[in-house]
């Protein structure tokens, strides 16, 4: 919420280049934080059998059998011990995910959604000022948007509690909401309309960021989650670079922000189509083989 005001202050004090340098330094601290993080390793220690040379061989053999039976009984009756599962290599997981058609369609849709959001936010303040608002009013609109995005990130988690609603449905709904809001910002005229539309735009932005990890977990499962996120994030990064460049080119060519925001709505419309396509593919696969789910390999 405070980030727009911080950037405005840094631009006034140090200029645009100084602002970007300071923000980059703040973001660079995350490298140090993540460098000292490590996962907690929890293992089950297995006692080694003791060797007693002075005991009778028959008694030693009998006692060892009783000991093994006792250990097997303890392990089978204990609910606190998680037996190790079969481990797969990263290559095997990648081969699994590249055949998951539903996941691939979702990656394309969420990449279009989030990259378009990023391109729209670059020129949001300038766009609002071209509509006749003062700089402080534009910053206040931006504050409303960020507040709505922060407070409404829990909505996707609440939505999936409703029967027959999952991550893909939530993604399609909030992306369509942002599509309509982008067009609404172009035709809005009053101050109240802009406040409402910016809040709705923030809700869609926050929820689409939430469904990224939530739907990835749903489609690939916990075992493949790290690989799935590793695929999604680079695709989003590359698409965000392309979206920002294309958006800036449209502004330079047309001399207006309207074309850029119309392209935002059009891109979100394509993303909604991809989410609906993923839902249709999943429904078709379930109808043909009811025991399959999203994590099944589709050859």
Automatic annotation (TrEMBL):
The keyword Nucleus does not apply. It comes from the Eukaryota. The keyword Lipid metabolism does not apply. The chain crosses the membrane at residues 14-36, 101-125, 141-161, 168-188, 194-212, 224-249, 261-281. Keywords: Membrane, Transmembrane, Transmembrane helix. One of its GO terms (molecular function) is monocarboxylic acid transmembrane transporter activity. PANTHER family: EG:103B4.3 PROTEIN-RELATED, MONOCARBOXYLATE TRANSPORTER. This is Monocarboxylate transporter 2. It comes from Mizuhopecten yessoensis (Japanese scallop).
């Amino acid at each position: 919420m405070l980030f727009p005001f911080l950037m405005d202050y840094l631009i006034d004090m140090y200029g645009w280049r100084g602002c970007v340098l300071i923000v980059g330094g703040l973001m660079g601290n995350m490298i140090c934080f993540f460098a000292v993080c490590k996962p907690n390793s929890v293992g089950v220690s297995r006692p080694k059998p003791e060797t007693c040379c002075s005991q009778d061989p028959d008694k030693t053999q009998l006692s060892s059998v009783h000991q093994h039976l006792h250990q097997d009984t303890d392990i089978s009756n204990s609910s606190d011990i998680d037996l190790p599962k079969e481990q797969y290599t990263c290559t095997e997981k990648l081969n699994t995910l590249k055949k998951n058609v539903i996941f691939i369609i979702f990656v394309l849709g969420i990449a279009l959604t989030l990259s378009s959001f990023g391109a729209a936010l670059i020129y949001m303040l300038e766009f609002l000022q071209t509509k006749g608002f003062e700089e402080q009013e534009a910053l206040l609109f931006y504050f409303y948007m960020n507040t709505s995005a922060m407070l409404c990130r829990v909505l996707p988690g609440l939505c999936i509690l409703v029967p027959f609603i999952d991550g893909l449905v939530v993604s399609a709904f909030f992306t369509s909401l942002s599509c309509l809001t982008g067009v609404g910002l172009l035709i809005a005229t009053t101050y109240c309309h802009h406040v409402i539309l910016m809040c709705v735009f923030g809700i869609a932005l926050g929820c689409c960021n939430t469904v990224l990890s939530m739907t990835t977990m749903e489609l690939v499962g916990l075992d493949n989650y790290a690989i799935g996120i590793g695929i999604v994030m680079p695709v989003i990064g590359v698409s965000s670079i392309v979206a920002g460049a294309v958006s800036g080119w449209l502004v330079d060519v047309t001399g207006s922000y309207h074309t850029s925001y119309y392209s935002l709505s059009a891109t979100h419309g394509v993303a909604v189509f991809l989410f609906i396509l993923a839902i249709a593919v999943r429904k078709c696969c379930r109808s043909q083989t009811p025991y399959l789910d999203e994590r099944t390999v589709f050859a």
